[in-house]
Design a protein that fits this description.
This protein has 15 helices and ten strands. It has 350 residues and is an alpha/beta fold. The longest helix is centred in the N-terminal third of the chain and has 24 residues. It holds the Pfam family GDPD.
């Protein structure tokens, strides 16, 4: 069961010895034995009950939503979240992943950042700018990501597209089997309702061609409340919560209303960069931070996690698959689908 597998990750015998030693130190040996026995019995009982009731909280039917995704349209060969990117990637992958924002004049546009600095090379906030005043997307962003810099077929500057432009592209007869994964960056009810209306108007919801989500828990809950029939991918807080509950053996007791569970194919360095953004953790010594990172990575990247999610009829997705090593890791994990920045490479590698 999950809780006992966690002991293997942490060095089970030593963890138990430390816990028991702490109890002995805080109270006499007799009380420590009683408390320890009660704790172990409680965990065992909870895990047993969880296994008995696992099927009660399983989703009714496991969806099929493609196997290959282009992150922001595939930003290694074309400028991210632009029409050239979507036109190119839709010829090679099953699903286009994109990000949506609402402009000052209530136009739904496809863009990743809240500001223009990185990909447009100028100051400004997208939510405070009218659609007609939006800058162009450059081939060479400030973060140094390729984005088709050497691709002669792509213009040096590309407009920030309307969300409806992408839906119209995927509504063409030759792209009718392509789907869309929509990420929300903005907590805005108007944006959610506008996007939902557009998806219904083009038949994407009716034809099961859309999944929407946000990495922020609050926005993800807003999406679920707006339309429970549209499948959702897990937010970051949900991933963390579900992972911890799984290793404690308690996740089967918890209802889950997501259709996809996604993790990033990240290195220790990238995970540590994330830890440094969490105020509670960033003040801790570096050694403790790295211990947390290594422990969490071991817990998160176990194939057991994906196996369990599949038993609940939840699809498993691995993000950031851009190399042969990443692809091999996705196979070891048993991922149902992979998200890449390089659709040309993935189309050949699969």
């Amino acid at each position: 069961m999950g809780c006992w597998k966690m002991f293997d990750v942490l060095g089970g015998r030593y963890a138990c010895a430390l816990v028991f030693g702490g109890l002995v130190w805080m109270m006499n040996l007799q009380r420590a034995c009683v408390v320890g026995a009660l704790c172990v019995s409680s965990i065992r009982l909870a895990a047993f009950a969880a296994d008995r009731y696992r099927t009660r909280n399983a989703r009714g039917e496991r969806m099929d939503f493609g196997k290959t995704y282009a992150h922001r349209g595939g930003r290694m060969s074309t400028p991210e979240n632009t029409m050239p990117a979507f036109e190119n990637a839709s010829q090679m992958v099953d699903v286009l992943e994109l990000d949506v924002w609402l402009t000052k004049d209530n136009k739904v546009v496809v863009f990743h950042d809240s500001t223009f600095d990185r990909v447009c090379g100028r100051q400004g906030v997208i939510a405070e700018t009218k659609f007609a005043d939006l800058p162009k997307v450059l081939k060479r962003p400030s973060d140094g990501f390729p984005q088709g810099e050497k691709n002669a077929r792509v213009a040096d500057e590309n407009h920030i597209p309307l969300f409806m432009e992408v839906l119209d592209l995927l509504s063409q007869p030759e792209r009718k089997d392509r789907k869309v994964l929509v990420e929300f960056k903005q907590h805005n009810k108007v944006l959610v309702e506008l996007v939902k209306s557009m998806l219904y108007s083009r038949g994407f919801v009716q034809d099961d061609r859309v999944v929407w989500f946000s990495l922020e828990y609050g926005i993800n809950r807003l999406l679920g409340a707006s339309d429970p029939s549209i499948p959702r991918l897990s937010s970051v807080p949900e991933v963390i919560t579900y992972t911890l509950l799984f290793w404690l053996g308690l996740l089967p007791l918890m209802p889950m209303d997501i259709s996809m569970f996604g993790i990033t194919c990240g290195t220790l360095e990238s995970l540590h960069s994330f830890v440094e953004t969490v105020s509670v953790l960033c003040s801790m010594p570096y050694e403790i931070q790295m211990f947390i990172v290594r422990t969490y990575r071991a817990m998160l990247t176990s194939p057991d996690m994906f196996t369990y999610m599949k038993s609940r009829n939840i699809m498993c997705v691995l993000l950031g698959v851009n190399t042969d090593e990443d692809l091999e890791f996705s196979r070891e994990m048993g991922a149902d689908m992979v998200i890449t920045d390089n659709p040309e490479w993935l189309a050949k590698a699969i």
